[in-house]
Known about the structure:
Blueprint: H1 3-9, E1 15-18, H2 29-47, H3 51-65, H4 68-76, H5 80-87, H6 99-107, E2 111-115, H7 120-130, E3 138-140, H8 153-163, E4 170-174, H9 177-185, E5 189-193, E6 213-215, H10 218-226
Parallel strand pairs: 1-2, 1-4, 2-3, 4-5, 5-6
Amino acid sequence: MDNQVLRNDFKNIRSWVFDLDDTLYPPSKELYAQMAERIRTFIMRALGVDEKTASVIQKDYYKKYGATVCGLMVEHDISPEEFTDYVHELDLSSIRPNPVLKTRLRALAGKKFVFTNGAHHHAERVLERLDLRDCFSGIFSIREAGYIPKPAEKTYLKMLDTFGIAANESVMFDDSPANILAAKKVGMKTVWISSNVENNQYCSVDDKNFCDYETPDLAEFLAELTEE
Length: 228
C-alpha cells in the first residue's frame, strides 16, 4: 500500500494501544519457556499435582478462560496477585533496548498506551528494559481488567473508558488474532503483528477479515505511517 494512502487511513487516530509481549518486542522462546515453567511450578505447588498434570491444567485453563490465572481463580479460589507476582518474576536480560521503535513511537501524533493480559509490574519492567517507558501514557494490565482477560469485550470497553479514549479514534496492535478481532468488534482500527504464529495456536479465529492491517515488523509499519 502507498504510504500516503496508509497515513490518510490513520489520520483520525488519536490513541495508539499496544499489546506488550510479542508485540513491543519479538517473540522470545527464552521468556516463553521461563513463564511456562513458572506457571507449571505454581500449579504443582498450589494444587498438589505433578508436572504433567500441571501442564495439562495450564493449557486447558488458557483455552477455556483466556488466561490460566482466571481458571485458577474460578475453579480453585486462588489469589490472582499471588499467581501473577510469582509467574512474572522473569529474567528479562534477553530483552534489549529498541531505539528504532522508540523513535517511531515518539513520531506518532497522540497518546500511546499498553494493554496487556500480563501483570502491571511485568509491563513496567519490560518497558524499562526496552527503554520505552516514557513513550507511554498508561498501562492497562490484567489487574486493571479485574482479571477478565482479552479478548473479553467488556475488558476492551473498560480499557477505553479508563484511558478516556474513543474506539473510532484509536488503533490496537496485538499478536493474537482473537485479541485483534475483539478490538475490531468494539470499533477500533486494528493491526495484527503476525510474527508469533507458533505461540498463538490457541488464539486463531475463523473470520478471515479479523484485522485491518497485518505486519510482521511493528517498527517498519510505524515508519510507513510517520516517514514522508
